[in-house]
Amino acid sequence: METKKVAIVGYNRIPFARINTAYADKTNQELLVAALNGLIDHYHLKGKRLGEVAGGAVIKHISESNLVRESVMETLLDPATPACDLQQACDTGIEAAIYIGNKIALGQIESGIACGVEAMSNIPFETSARLRKALLKANKEKSGFGKIKHLLSPKLKDWMPIVYKGQEPETGLTMGGHTEITAKHYQISREEQDELAYKSHQNMAKAYDEGFFNDMITPAFGLDKDNNLRRDTNPEKLASLKPAFDKQNGTLTAGNSTPFTDGASAILLASEEWAKQNNLPILAYITFSEVAGIEYVKDQQNLLLAPVFAADRMLKKAGIRLEEFDYYEIHEAFAAQVLATLKIWENDNVAKQFGLEKALGKIDRNKLNVKGGSLAAAHPFAATGGRIIGTLAKLLHEKGSGKGFISICAARGQGVTMILEK
């Protein structure tokens, strides 16, 4: 069976906002609808029935079990457009694109939207096990006295909500805690991390000034730019920040790590025929992708390094060396994670110690995250993939030809890579 080419024909996102700022009272659905309607408006999709919309959020309320379908019903698309939720931590946006792309390649659908959203300001709290059991028993109790009896059984401390900290269940460490171990293991200096963060902010500020994002971002709820961007940051300011995770000997700070973030993004994918019928230019094609997992409970430095294996397998399938790309979009969850990944990919000895046959090649740093990365834009978990795909597709479209490389790490020791071509 001959497969169809998968074209990227549109992109849109709302500005990303640090937790508890511009979108403090907004839900996943409100943010996602804003991003979807921006895409629909920009590409004249009002009333159209698309093949499918797929995406999700990493953290959802119980009431959001069908988040993407419910969101589609609130947009200007034909309500007959089906939708589904999927989730793979920070890989969610890319996985949604792979899901939609595979259906297009197989001829099952002609068009679809891959999306992702995160409303970290509105995440649900957990309750203690004792309180949960008491509430369930009280709910079943018929008499008022019985209900009160059950509600009085938990201790005062049991009534305190449990706040989300982003810890890995298998280790009890946060991503930052794991990445501190990574930085020490691979001898990534504080200066290197701060330099990468500084360049990320500088590149994004320049991109805004050039108007690169003008057709990529729909203002939402009073915000028209990513509010994590720090135009005035410099190496001296970054160097003055205190360690955020290992308070005594750490090198990760608020400046070289991404904060919890609210935001949403959407990517329009299609077959070549559908793009032509709808008068939409083909920005780029998705040609290869690979998902990988890695052990990180015993080797705790590995949590965010699964893209090392994903890239190795993908590049072998594509027959391409790592240095043969025009642009590289590597998700900057932490500067240290990016630098450790690059060190493994580029150094033969380190690559072999990690488990690769050899180094994958060198990356020209002038081609890396040229319009800024997650350290500047910030990181709404499920929405970052859409931001990165959109940015790289536009870069390739403006260039007129070429290849782009994407790498995104994720919680639970997973990662994804992708190749876009024009």
From TrEMBL:
User: Which Pfam family, any one of them, does this sequence belong to?
Assistant: Thiolase_C
Residues forming the Thiolase N-terminal domain are: 6-273
Q: Give a GO molecular function annotation for the protein.
A: acetyl-CoA C-acetyltransferase activity
* All copies of domain Thiolase C-terminal, residue ranges: 298-422
Q: Give the top-level enzyme category.
A: transferase
What CDD domains does this protein map onto?
thiolase (cd00751)
Q: Which UniProt keywords apply?
A: Acyltransferase, Transferase
Region forming the signal peptide: none
Q: What is its EC number?
A: 2.3.1.9
PANTHER family assigned: ACETYL-COA ACYLTRANSFERASE FADA2 (3-KETOACYL-COA THIOLASE) (BETA-KETOTHIOLASE)-RELATED (PTHR42689)
Q: Which family does it belong to?
A: Belongs to the thiolase-like superfamily. Thiolase family.
Q: Give the protein name, as stated in the record.
A: Acetyl-CoA C-acetyltransferase
Q: Which organism is it from?
A: Chryseobacterium gilvum
